[in-house]
Amino acid sequence: MIEILVSVLLLAGAAFMVLAAIGVLRLPDLPTRMHATTKAGALGAMMTMGGVAFYFGESTVVARAVAIVIFILLTAPIAAHVIGRAGYFTGTKLWAGTIKDELQERYDPNTHKLSSGLEETESRMPPRTEKAP
Amino acid sequence: MLSVVINIVYLMLSLALLFAFIRLTRGPSLPDRVVALELIASIVVGYVGVHAIDTGVASFLDVAIVIALTAFLAAIGFARFVERGGVKND
Fold it and tell me: Is ipTM > 0.95 here?
C-alpha cells in the first residue's frame, strides 16, 4: 500500500520535472522559461521528498524531508523573483509575440525604482506636515 | 514493483537533466543559464531523494538539503552579479 503511494509520488514528481525541463528547452524567452521551471521544478522536488518521507516513515527522516519541502517552498519564489528582476533590468529581449509589458514605462532603469504613475496627483495634495517633537 | 518504478524515475530525471543541460549550453543570455542551473539543482535534489529510497540510506537527505541551500545562494549571487553591472550579454 505504502509502496503504491511512494511509486505514485515519485512518478508524479519525475513527470513534473520532465515537464519543467521540456518547458525550459522549448519556450521562447526568459519569463516564460522561468514560468515553467520555478513552479513545476519545485513541485517535482517536493513530491519526490514526499515519497521519501512516506517510504522511510521514521520521525527523523520525515522531519528532514518536511524541512526540505519547506525550504524549497520558501526559496524557490525568492530566487525566481530575483533572477527575473535581474534579467528584466539587463534588457533581455521578450518574445516577439508578447502583447503587453506593463513594467516598461513604470520602471526607472537608472534607479531601479517602480512607480505607479500616480505621483503627479499625489504631489498636488497639500504636503503632510510633521509635528515637531 | 518499486525497483521498476525507481528505474523509470531515474530515466525520466536523466531526460530532464539532458534538456536542462541543452538550455544551459545554448541559452542566449546569462539569466537563461542561471534559470537552467536552478532547474538542474532541483532535479539533482529529486535524484538524491530517489537514490535514498533506492539504497535505503536516509542520510542522503542531508545532501539534498545542502544542494537546495547552495542552489538558492548561487541564484541570489548570480542575480546580484547580473544586476550590479556584470556582463550584460552572455
Answer: no
